[in-house]
Amino acid sequence: MDFQQLADVAEKWCSNTPFELIATEETERRMDFYADPGVSFYVLCPDNGCGDNFLLGLPDADDDAFEEYSADVEEEEPEADHPQMGISQQ
Prior knowledge:
Its main location: cytoplasm. By secondary structure, the chain is an alpha+beta fold. It contains two helices and four strands.
């Protein structure tokens, strides 16, 4: 499929999701998506006749941002509103 057609389909998909198509790179056949609060991923669209197979990737996390996020998560008390499925509560 032509890359522009893929980008058009991605834009249409975004209209029904919280994600935005924030960048496209035709030479790499890559599309980058983003949604608040800081969720992002990219898709590589091979051009080798492999059908509907795509590579989904996650960008490298910024170490400082990850450490700040980890510290915030560790400080929070877990909510026990409902039992967790698949986790033993001994």
